[in-house]
Amino acid sequence: MKSYPSISSLIREQLDSLTVKVxxxxxxxxxxxxxxxxxxEVPSFLLPEAVTKKIxxxxxxxxxxxxxxxxxxxxxxxxxxxxxxxxYSTIKERLEQLYTFFYLVYQxxxxxxxxxxxxxxxxxxxxxSSLDEKNCLEAIISSAINVIPSADAGFLQLFDYxxxxxxVKASIGFNHSIKEFKIRVKEAITGIVxxxxxxxxxxxxxxxxxxMDNYHISKANFDILMSASDGYAIKAMLCTPVTIxxxxxxxxxxxxxxxxxxxxxxxxxxxxxxxxxxxIAIQNAQLYDELKIxxxxxxxxxxxxxxxxxxxxxxxxxxxxxxxxxxxxxxPDSIISALRRMLETSVFYxxxxxxxxxxxxxxxxxxxSVEEISLIFSERRAPVxxxxxxxxxxxxxxxxxxxxxxxxxxxxxxxxxxxxxIAQTTVEQGGTILSLEAVKEQTLTDVYYKKxxxxxNKLLQHEDPEWLLSKGKEFGLNVSSYFCVALAxxxxxxxxxxxxxxxxxxxxTIKKNIKNKDLLIFGLNNKVTILASFERPAELKAFTEEIxxxxxxxxxxxxxxxxxxIGNPYTGIEFIKKSxxxxxxxxxxxxxxxxxxxxxxxxxxxNRLFLHQSPEEVKDFSDEILGAxxxxxxxxxxxxxxxxxxxxxxxxxxxxxxxxxxxxNTLYKRLKKIEDIxxxxxxxxxxxxxxxxxxxLRGSF
Length: 701
Hints:
This protein has 701 residues and is α+β, with helices and mostly antiparallel strands. It has five domains: 5-114, Beta-Lactamase (2-Layer Sandwich), CATH 3.30.450; 128-290, Beta-Lactamase (2-Layer Sandwich); 329-429, Beta-Lactamase (2-Layer Sandwich); 462-606, Alpha-Beta Plaits (2-Layer Sandwich); 615-700, Arc Repressor Mutant, subunit A, CATH 1.10.10.2840. The chain is 49% helix and 21% strand. It has a six-stranded antiparallel beta sheet, with helices on both faces. A hairpin with a 2-residue loop joins strand 1 (20-26) and strand 2.
């Protein structure tokens, strides 16, 4: 006798005198389990398959020459008895009695099964008590398989409000691709269970596939499900909603692929009970996670408040120290020294307005040139970290100094790794103070320019020579030297503050690069006036070349496109007015032609006679003279080229014919045709002068 000790004595009383064996199977496991043998020697044999068609309460049959009796009870329970030939007749006479007797065995089997179910259910509920949501979800699906022994796979889907789909949160018996299985509400089995809240049992593969088809599972989801099962054929399935109160949050599904036994309505009821407990566990885990998040937020907030208080105190100290330096007019050098001490690293400052580097180290020791900084911030105004690879790998934090849209300069800070928050704030405070310093300096410079402008206007009026000479000495002018005036025009800018900064920057560049000259220089609107003094008139050439070099180098992108006119040098302050008007005319010559660059008044030549003529008038004159040769006909274009070559060759027929690679006779024919078209005579001095002037003006204006 194996198991059932409570009725073992009864079984012995009924069967001890007979050579028999007794097995039992239930709906949990279709394999027969031996529950009694009388201890006598019995032959070995193979058990028959479980009887699937149950017409009577019991049946007698033979299998491989052996006699068997099957007794059938509710819940698909079967008691199987083997009887020897000697015992067969006795057993046959006592079938009704034995059926009633084995009913006790069946009832104890049911009790044992329910005890096992309850034990598994309690174990499952205990296993899902984890407050960690991830562990809780994984425990739910593994415990569900334990509660339903006939199942060997399953998954838990929770509704995701962002994608509006049921997403797999935990699974067992499926491969990793099941994570891609996302079901819309009312799609397939889990989708309809979530929608209507009704649990479902499917005991055949056909039922499962029909239901998935009825509720329109997508091909993509069907393929994912088939792939996730690694080719195992599904035999049965249970599916139930997971509900908190009246709110459905997901679906729990278990599957049978290769396990023996049969999924029953009893299993479905057990799964529903377990799902209700699982819902509570999920809610507890989610509440716990929310509580942890809130606790972490409170802890983090407390820490942040401490750090912020410390940070604010440090920031206030930095602000007071730098502001004190500014109020004491210590200048940018002192501010950079203070920043170097605070940051405990190398700090440089490029002042683009004054074109200076602080500290003023040699070029090879500068991490960035002025041109490189201008290029880096040509399209941006945000700070940037830059790694520099030379002999050593170095990192620099570049912080632009601005006043509105005006780029005033840049702080360059050497850093190790990332810049700390307090270090970043220190740099920002330093940048703000340097910006105020630059604006303050610009304001003082504007006041100085205003004084120079007033003095220059009085120089042009020349009403009190003695006072002018005395005042000139105060401004550092050599009043006994030669003077010339240069007038620069910077391209117009809609941003007046930007224009003001460009003018200051241009003046600083002039002062820095033109040495050994006594200069009086000031800016007004988009024009810069330079009064230069020379020992000798010949120095004008070097002065012009220096100015031209500055423009060509384009040391700053903002001063590109500058036009500069320079008057002739004269001795005596009374002639400054004359040089100034010459500079005005020279500048007008460039601006009328929309040209940038530098030109001396004397270089204009004959064009000075036409400076006050509008471009339209000059064009009209040229068209009146040469218009007939300037149509679209190829012949006239050739005649125009011939006439221009004839003028360039100083009316030499032989040289012109040679240049044009034509015979002299051909040249004479063309010249005659030109005279006819223009109605002018090339041998007539006045007519020829008109033609020369027309060609010259067309090329000059």
